[in-house]
Recover the amino acids of this structure.
């Protein structure tokens, strides 16, 4: 069904755009690309989790845990180990949250994960000695503050997220994940260790978001709780994946690009803070108009075009015979 | 010494190889204070097709859900191949050799027949050499009459084909014992005859089968033995003709006034 070439498309897109922007070295475009890449990673991670039926509103928790873990551990154990700590802490948090929410379905799961993200923000403010409280914390600056290298590193992380997403869309995982989402009992009756698979998806998703959060914190070397533990980072991945097209790899990528473009256009046309209202409304309209997202729209256009060429061929054929 | 075992006229295919493949001892399952199964003991003979019947609410589905590991056991033991599987996870029980189907198959509509069958093939972890010619998704689909629909999406399948797919999915677990939960419900006469043929072919592969069924026609044509549940207890068991003529069984099914 899917040819090798279309499968390579996301990788080629990321590589080309990243290299081109590093080459051109225009600060505005580099900052824009960094923003797109970070949100794309969180959206891919959200989508990976949602394939097992776990619709999370807790992405912000992992985004914040990532940046705070890097900031807290770097002075204690050094930069390399601190990055490893980000992976370990996010994996532990994902396991814990995954086990706690295991039996919750749909809306209840979403509310529980949202509650987790909100309580993390409170936790940070309650322990100011460790976390700096509401005053914020200073994670190590990514790539010595050189935006081009920052984009390069975040681009690499995005490539890793894309590769993970693709691997989890392969025959080994996709059918089992979808079966868990549709009817977990049926998956179990087919030999799938449902709990282990759900926790596994949670860990992959949580670690990816945590790494994205750590990168985000490292952009300027300074974060405050309201910067990372905000509901924005919980809703954005969901909105992007839905807008772009769920259960795909290219969907969250296209969604991230579309959303950023929309935001920039709205900002320059409307300006102030009013642009956020318009921007939100446009997202809602898009989601209503395209339930299958951009990917669904492209697929539909593809079949239409295919039909048109097929019809054209037939017509030519008929004319030739006439 | 001559073979003294005379063929039973009710047996349609391979004779039983003897011994219990599944044994349930004093099984009790309760939802709150309500006992859905109340001290049920029975055994399923290897190589046979056993019918599990009883009025609505008698505990048939509870029994299937419990032995397949999806309901917690309040008391008693479940043995598969003589090994204790009480309280084991459903996926482990599948790996131990017991597969089940669902009455209402809910498969992801965006998966193809091939992809659905790939799940048990990848995860059930069973030795597939036991079922020669049924080691891959394509041959299992063909065996179940789904060959032409192999690459179709499940969302486009008819109810009958979804039933076939459900049997195919269970077959892909390479089971020794297959529990069929009302595989014929809601099918037309022609379709149910076809599915019955399929069940017979599955049995021909040396797989023991338990059928939950309301249609007596199915029980009398397919089953070697029948087990009757009523109010969570074992009411009767034996050959179909004997059991269905039993006064207590008729009363349980039809009510006291009609049975006599």
């Amino acid at each position: 069904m899917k040819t090798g070439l279309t499968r390579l498309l996301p990788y080629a897109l990321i590589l080309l755009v990243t290299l081109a922007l590093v080459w051109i070295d225009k600060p505005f475009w580099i900052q824009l690309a960094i923003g797109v890449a970070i949100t794309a990673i969180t959206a891919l991670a959200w989508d990976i989790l949602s394939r097992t039926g776990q619709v999370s509103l807790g992405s912000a928790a992992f985004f914040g845990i990532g940046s705070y873990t890097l900031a807290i551990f770097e002075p204690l154990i050094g930069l390399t180990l601190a990055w490893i700590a980000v992976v370990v802490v996010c994996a532990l948090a994902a396991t814990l949250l995954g086990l706690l929410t295991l039996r919750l379905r749909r809306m209840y799961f979403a509310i529980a994960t949202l509650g987790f993200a909100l309580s993390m923000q409170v936790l940070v403010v309650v322990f100011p000695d460790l976390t700096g409280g509401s005053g914020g914390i200073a994670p190590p600056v990514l790539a010595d503050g050189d935006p081009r290298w920052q984009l390069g590193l975040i681009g690499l992380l995005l490539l890793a997220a894309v590769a993970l997403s693709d691997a989890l869309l392969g025959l080994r995982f996709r059918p089992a994940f979808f079966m868990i989402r549709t009817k977990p009992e049926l998956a179990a009756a087919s030999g799938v260790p449902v709990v282990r698979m759900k926790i596994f998806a949670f860990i992959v998703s949580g670690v990816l978001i945590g790494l994205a959060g750590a990168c985000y914190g490292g952009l300027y070397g300074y974060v405050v709780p309201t910067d990372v533990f905000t509901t924005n980072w919980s809703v954005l991945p969901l909105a992007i994946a839905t807008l772009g097209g769920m259960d795909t790899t290219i969907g969250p990528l296209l969604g991230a690009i579309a959303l950023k473009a929309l935001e920039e256009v709205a900002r320059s046309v409307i300006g102030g803070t009013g642009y956020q209202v318009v921007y939100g409304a446009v997202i809602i309209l898009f989601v209503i108009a395209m339930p299958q997202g951009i990917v669904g729209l492209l697929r539909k256009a593809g079949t239409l075009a295919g039909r048109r060429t097929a019809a054209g061929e037939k017509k030519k054929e008929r004319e030739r015979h006439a | 010494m001559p073979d003294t075992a005379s063929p039973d006229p009710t047996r349609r295919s391979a004779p039983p190889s003897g011994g219990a493949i599944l044994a349930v001892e004093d099984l009790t399952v309760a939802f709150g204070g309500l006992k859905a199964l109340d001290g049920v003991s029975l055994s399923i003979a290897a190589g046979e097709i056993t019918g599990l019947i009883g009025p609505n609410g008698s505990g048939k589905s509870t029994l299937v859900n419990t032995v397949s590991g999806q309901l917690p056991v309040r008391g008693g033991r479940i043995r598969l191949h003589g090994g204790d599987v009480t309280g084991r996870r459903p996926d482990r029980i599948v790996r131990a050799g017991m597969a089940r189907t669902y009455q209402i198959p809910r498969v992801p509509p965006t998966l193809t027949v091939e992809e659905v069958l790939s799940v048990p093939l990848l995860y059930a972890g069973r030795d597939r050499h036991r079922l020669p010619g049924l080691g891959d998704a394509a041959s299992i689909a063909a065996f179940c009459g789904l060959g032409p629909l192999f690459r179709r999406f499940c969302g486009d399948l008819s109810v009958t084909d979804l039933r076939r797919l459900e049997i195919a999915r269970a077959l892909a677990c390479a089971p020794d014992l297959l529990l069929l939960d009302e595989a014929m419900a809601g099918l037309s006469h022609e379709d149910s005859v076809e599915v019955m043929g399929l069940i017979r072919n599955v049995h021909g592969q040396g797989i023991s089968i338990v059928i939950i069924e309301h249609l007596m026609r199915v029980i009398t044509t397919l089953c070697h033995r029948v087990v009757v549940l009523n109010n969570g207890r074992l009411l009767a068991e034996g050959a179909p003709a004997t059991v269905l003529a039993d006064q207590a069984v008729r009363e349980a099914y039809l009510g006291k006034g009609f049975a006599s």
About this structure: Chain B has one domain: 20-259. The beta strands of chain B are 20-31, 34-45, 49-53, 75-80, 83-84, 98-100, 177-181, 208-212, 225-230, 233-238. The first strand of chain B starts at residue 20 and ends at 31. Residues 56 and 198 of chain B are 26 Å apart (CA to CA).
